[in-house]
Request: fold
Amino acid sequence: MLSDELLTHEVLITWGTALAAFLAVALSAVWRLTRNVITIAHEGGHALLAVLTGRRLSGIKLHSDTSGLTVSRGKPRGPGMVLTALAGYTAPSLLGFGAALLITNDQIRLMLWITIAFLAAMLVMIRNVFGVLSIIVTGGAFFFISFYASPEVRDAAAYVFAWFLLLGGVRPVWELQVKRWRRQAPRSDADQLAWLTGVPALGWVTLFGLVSVAALIGGGALLLGRW
Reply:
């Protein structure tokens, strides 16, 4: 049983960091900057699945407008290509759920180390200057928090990161569909999946949305249930 003081501390961390992450996603002026982290997770998801399905990863680019590109070589169609295309929009949310799971099992430092390793692996494959700077700055922040920050700051940062991935995984799916309504994204991941599978692009956008919302609900329940 937690003491009243400790319980109050846990509640403040959980809700305070959730609010901070929500503002980082909801405020457009802030989102233009913080969305770069979601792009890193998005392109990292493409890259990871490309490698896991036996495709040859050629490189990753991250751009200042928060767009990105991951290029891999292999069969132009088939399960490997489908899973690689599917991974982008689902990666931030699934990574957020994994982060929440580690936090609730008191593995915050492990979560930070996994993130650092993930970023280091991506850095090897980055093929443009902005992308290199983005990875170095993000990785440097995680390195400092992991090894030099106080336990209180480290815990708060881990919560913010988990909440941000969970919340930040939802908004890009909505933005994608808005662009599709305006015919501004003819070569989106959803449209590529439609070409690969014959399933309409809207079906894939719906799947992206279901995964992101399910991860938010599940991950949020884990974080809130911690106290």
Residues 4-225 form one domain.
